[in-house]
Amino acid sequence: MKDYRPRVADDLLKRKLAGKGAVLIKGPKWCGKTTTAEQVAKSALYMADTGSREQNIKLANVNPHLILDGPTPRLIDEWQVAPVLWDAVRFEVDHRKGHGHFILTGSVVMHDKKEEEERLIQHSGTGRIARLIMRPMSLWESGDSNGSVSLKELFQSPEKIAATCDLDLKDIAYLTCRGGWPDTLTMERDVALDQAFDYVDAVAETDISEADHVKRNPEQVRRLLRSYARNQGAQSPLTTIRDDMKANESSTFNEDTVGSYIKALKKIYVIEDMSAWNPNLRSKTAIRTSDNRYFVDPSIATAALGLGPNDLINDLETFGLIFETLCARDLRVFADAMDGKVYHYRDKDNLECDAVVHLRNGSYGLIEIKLGGDSLIEDGVNTLLTLSNKIDTTKMKSPSFLMVLTAVGKYAFRRDDGVYVVPIGCLRD
Question: Could you read off the pLDDT of 220-237 as tens digits, one per residue?
Answer without folding.
Answer: 999 999 999 999 999 998
